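User: My collaborator sent over this chain with a note saying "see what the structure looks like." That's all I know about it. Can you take a look?
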Amino acid sequence: MSDKNTLYLECRSGISGDMTVAALLDLGATEENLRRTLAKLPVDGYEIKVQRLRKNGLDVCDFDVILEDEADHKHLQEKMNGHVQVEHGHIHGHVDGSNMHVHEHEKHHEHIHEHREGRECEHDHGGAHTHAHVHRTWKDIEQLLETADLKPRVLELSRQMFRTVAEAEGKAHGCPPEQVHFHEVGAVDSIVDIVGTAACLEELGVEKVLVSDLWEGSGHVHCQHGVLPVPVPAVLEIAAAHGLTLRQTEQQGEMVTPTGAAIAALSEGRQPSRFRVKRAGLGAGKKEFPKANILRAMLIEEEPEGELWLLESNIDDCPGEAMGYAMDCLLEAGARDVFFTPIFMKKNRPAYKLSVLCDEEHIREMDEILFRETTTIGVRRCRVERDVLPRRFAEVQTELGAAKVKICALPDGKEVFYPEYESVKELARKSGKSYREVYRVVKEEAENDMQYR
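Assistant: Without extra context I'll predict from the sequence alone. Here is the result:
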């Protein structure tokens, strides 16, 4: 297996932790490596089951985490039999004093993407477990991961996904991520799903993750403390923080869980427009939908990005506000870049040349926006070529907090680091330090961190 693969996740039936692990196992990751990695965790009270199932006539892989409280499982099954209208539970929390406790939501369906106890439960068995109030904070879980002797890449990915969930839950419930408490029973599924996903990604040599739009259900889901709308708050927070696109469907119930959204948040860009499939895997969801309830995972080879289209128009009679709005519309619609160049037109009239770089399939949409939002009466275009440096994204920990960094490889193999603007801006506002100072701190931390070299 190549040590530099691109993974594409097609989420037309949503995404959850167990579906992802199953799809990656079907893609080529081994159950032996998965079990060996999970055995390093100081977590017990569960077992995993990997099997083959048929979904809408398709042979797919199924992954399940089975907790060792059979009485609770029986109790859950009774609940599931009586409340099949709800698709799955989800992470839900309440504030007790200064801390937020994440409780499970009852899961009443098979596609069970639930987050219970600060974790999503994507398994048939996991809906309404009763348990003693044993808690783990996010810091406890981070320490658990760091002491488990995981491979560096597995540790990095696991921390990133768990932090994404903790930050989303904290924001949704109005408390810092450090104060989010995960009930011990509830945290087990999330730990297994997240570390399992990270172990499979590392074994498959996945360096870049791309995801499609996240197809989500509608309606409401029931939990211990009431009824929540779909998408649930944590999923919305993750989507907003990481630029994920949700596509709501008529399917009743939740299809995207917080753990699934945290996995999707590893994505480094839009879904590929053209690619060659090297290998594919299918992961089973737990509920029977009219359409196949599966997650498709593909190792792909993207078509070269060196070729783009340049659209241009000279404009001398359009208000600046309209031009700015047009730029926003073009970027939101998929333009690779939009920029203005001051020019002089005939009769020495000052004007702007509006330039748009886009893929071929976006030309028609770009034209429509240009004609609708500006005063231009014509758009010229030509095909352009470019050289592109290989790049990837990583998250680094600094004294000011976590920040996302773009890492580009130069032709001689040397890597250069570029802190992402939004991360630097957020840390600058939180710390009160200047943008330039935060940028320097993040860049130096990235350069000094050997795991990104």
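A starting point for your reply to your collaborator: The longest helix spans residues 152-173.
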